[in-house]
Task: inverse folding
């Protein structure tokens, strides 16, 4: 009956041994070749002539690594204006040619095709969820259905008010630029600059002005054949798509700017008019200026000035800033936020803000599971879930990664981070994020409830813990470090276990030499309660691992020792549903 559990137990125990023996948190190890791949776990969606013969079973789940040779298309000559963009993206399998070997650079791009390129190029966190049923004109077996869902949920593309996506409609240049600006968080740009860059600035639709300004300041816009003419309503060509996506990846620091002496560089708006784009696609705006220009970080920008940190973040660096959005600060009681800005609480404000700053520049692709020391002096716990394209920092989720600045990079987060020894309770309100909040996630992961199998190791049958039985398990987070994990082992003498555990920071395990995965160890103590007629209460010691299985489930393996009439030891292996 428990043969499968024993096999699973063997794997779990091996992982536990690796984690317990680690002196310091490990990091997810990735091959050098995989690190060169631009994009994430996007499907290998191709362009029009290939999509017709593609079936879901033929679609790989991982983006292929870049090809080693140089990709060449017969219709993209050595002197073709967009050749550097096209060649670089083709070598990384972000774009592809047609079966006849051509690229067809002047062919217009449809909205579905642009969504496929977005999915291949960017590894963004999801910021919203497509409503149940999706777009009414996208069937589940449509070749680009998954790409459209990804482009929508990562904030790049939206549908129309009638709940259609219109996948076969040609996408215009302004729509493509707005898409890239929205996905990369390039909103709130200085719209006054548009007339100095474009002779047809008045033709830019009102809805797009802010995003076009942000994309212009970030050197994402490419205008061929005349750098001064934006041509907002012309259909985006395959050459245009390659150029703009390349520049967006440069903006993220994931590709190097093309050489300034290449003809293609003369069409990048901003590079020839205001100077060459710095390495990594960073503009002249520092972290504070970049945050101040965005509608998402107005509270953070104000607090930095109040705390006297603005000048340091403008002149120093490089820095990585986990920046709470205005919505994140709105989760704090207004009274607490107001008191943080009072002179007597300035030191507390400085500690909180510097807890969001990490010395050095770490892009999303460079973040690893484990602890990272902050400028405040205490570490934050980073958990990188590559399968879900999700990054969390302590109890906050990164909602927008890789917002570049001249002296570092900004990652937007949806909660304010508070050091474990800083209390907001005395500042007013009930927003003490370092206090008790039942059901919250801890640094070890989400709270959950689930089922498990119990394997008895020792015990004379005094309790069900010492026998093979079914169990219900749970984890209820209390603070960032502590949780309570009630469970019940059912049998002839059902035993209830109630331990309080100390949840350790996530770390990476690689017991088989294959791909590493995150684990979250815990240890604790509590009480074991027998429920038979001779009910007895005894000391309980526990320890184990939580292993995330995506965003919904957590695999748990734990060892429990109950000191009752006899010492009963059992091992539980189960799966919990996260809440």
Result:
């Amino acid at each position: 009956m428990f043969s499968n559990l024993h096999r699973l137990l063997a794997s779990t125990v091996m992982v536990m041994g690796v984690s317990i023996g680690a002196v310091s948190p490990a990091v997810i190890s990735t091959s050098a070749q995989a690190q060169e791949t631009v994009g994430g776990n996007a499907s290998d969606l191709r362009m029009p002539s290939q999509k017709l013969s593609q079936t879901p079973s033929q679609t790989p789940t991982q983006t292929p690594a870049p090809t080693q040779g140089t990709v060449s298309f017969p219709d993209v000559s050595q002197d073709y204006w967009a050749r550097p963009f096209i060649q670089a993206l083709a070598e990384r399998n972000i774009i592809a040619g047609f079966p006849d070997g051509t690229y067809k650079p002047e062919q217009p791009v449809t909205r579905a095709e642009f969504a496929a390129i977005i999915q291949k190029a960017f590894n963004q966190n999801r910021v919203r969820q497509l409503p149940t049923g999706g777009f009414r004109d996208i069937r589940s077996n449509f070749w680009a259905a998954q790409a459209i869902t990804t482009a929508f949920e990562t904030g790049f593309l939206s549908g129309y008010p009638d709940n259609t996506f219109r996948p076969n409609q040609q996408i215009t240049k302004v729509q493509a630029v707005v898409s890239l600006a929205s996905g990369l968080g390039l909103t709130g740009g200085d719209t006054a600059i548009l007339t100095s860059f474009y002779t047809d600035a008045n033709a830019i639709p009102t809805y797009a002005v802010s995003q076009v300004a942000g994309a212009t300041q970030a050197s994402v816009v490419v205008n061929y054949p005349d750098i001064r003419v934006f041509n907002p309503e012309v259909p985006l060509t395959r050459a245009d798509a390659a150029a703009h996506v390349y520049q967006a990846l440069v903006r993220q620091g994931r590709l190097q700017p093309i050489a300034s002496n290449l003809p293609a560089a003369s069409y990048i708006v901003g590079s020839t008019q205001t100077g060459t784009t710095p390495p990594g696609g960073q503009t002249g705006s520092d972290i504070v200026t970049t945050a101040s220009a965005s509608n998402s970080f107005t509270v953070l920008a104000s607090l930095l000035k109040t705390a006297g940190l603005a000048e340091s973040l403008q002149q120093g660096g490089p820095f990585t800033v986990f920046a709470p959005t205005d919505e994140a600060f709105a989760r704090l009681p207004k009274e607490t936020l107001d008191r943080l800005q009072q002179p007597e609480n300035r030191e507390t404000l400085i500690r909180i803000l510097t807890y969001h700053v990490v010395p050095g520049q770490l892009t999303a692709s460079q973040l690893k599971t484990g602890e990272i020391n902050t400028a405040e002096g205490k570490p934050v716990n980073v958990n990188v879930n590559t399968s879900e394209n999700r990054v969390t920092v302590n109890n906050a989720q990164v909602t927008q990664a890789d917002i570049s600045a001249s002296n570092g990079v900004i990652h937007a987060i949806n909660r304010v981070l508070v050091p474990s020894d800083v209390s907001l309770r005395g500042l007013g309100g009930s927003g003490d994020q370092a206090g008790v909040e039942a059901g919250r996630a801890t640094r070890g992961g989400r709270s959950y409830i689930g089922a498990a199998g119990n394997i008895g190791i020792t015990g004379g049958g005094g309790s069900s813990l010492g026998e093979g039985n079914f169990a219900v398990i749970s984890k209820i987070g209390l603070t960032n470090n502590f949780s309570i994990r009630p469970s019940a082992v059912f049998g002839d003498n059902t035993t209830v276990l109630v331990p309080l555990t100390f949840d350790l920071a996530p770390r990476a395990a690689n017991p088989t030499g294959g791909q590493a995965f995150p684990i979250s160890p815990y240890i604790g103590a509590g009480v074991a309660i027998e429920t038979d007629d001779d009910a007895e209460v005894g000391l309980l010691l526990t320890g184990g691992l939580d292993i995330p299985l995506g965003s919904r489930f957590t695999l748990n393996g734990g060892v429990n020792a109950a000191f009752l009439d006899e010492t009963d030891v059992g091992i539980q292996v189960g799966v919990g549903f996260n809440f």
Remarks:
- The radius of gyration is 27 Å.
